[in-house]
């Protein structure tokens, strides 16, 4: 599905709009290590491939918050708004890490605009976002992502 680009004034009409899915991105050990360095979370299930082979997941896994952070680049693949001065990642209402993402896995995001509300000077959208793991039935992350757009 191509990226949807809309004018600010169109936002209120988008409640319930399925934005489709992104392309897959592969999770690498280098990416996991960089995230571990940035967040000071060096737990062995993420950063020690040899030890992780014998761990509960059989391989190193991505940090849940690393997987969650992919919402931002995935979001840019799916959606944009013209006619605004500022775009803000406003937050999250609900997040669940439902399946571990093993190193080497490929993930993508499916998103639906759940609601659009007016805020002072702009609009806020709530997006139901699901990060899926290629070849697995259950998702890695389910989240309600909030974004704001100001005129």
TrEMBL record:
Domain of life: Bacteria
Pfam families: MaoC_dehydratas
Annotated InterPro entries: HotDog_dom_sf (IPR029069), MaoC-like_dom (IPR002539), NodN-like (IPR039375)
The MaoC-like domain, residue ranges: 15-127
SUPFAM superfamilies listed in its UniProt record: Thioesterase/thiol ester dehydrase-isomerase (SSF54637)
Family matches, as PANTHER family: MAOC-LIKE DEHYDRATASE DOMAIN-CONTAINING PROTEIN
Similarity comment text for this entry: Belongs to the enoyl-CoA hydratase/isomerase family.
The protein's name in its UniProt record: MaoC family dehydratase
């Amino acid at each position: 599905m191509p990226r949807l680009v809309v004018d600010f004034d169109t936002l209120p009409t988008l409640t319930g709009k399925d934005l489709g899915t992104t392309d897959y991105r592969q999770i690498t050990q280098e990416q996991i290590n960089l995230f571990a360095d940035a967040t000071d979370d060096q737990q062995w299930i993420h950063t020690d491939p040899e030890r992780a082979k014998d761990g509960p997941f059989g391989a190193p896994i991505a940090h849940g918050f690393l997987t969650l952070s992919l919402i931002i680049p995935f979001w840019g693949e799916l959606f944009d708004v013209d006619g605004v001065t500022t775009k803000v990642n406003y937050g999250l209402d609900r997040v669940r890490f439902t399946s571990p993402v093993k190193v080497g896995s490929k993930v993508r995001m499916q998103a639906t605009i759940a609601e659009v509300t007016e805020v002072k000077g702009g609009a806020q959208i709530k997006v139901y976002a699901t990060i899926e793991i290629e070849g697995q039935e259950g998702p890695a992350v389910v989240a309600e992502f909030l974004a704001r757009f100001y005129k």
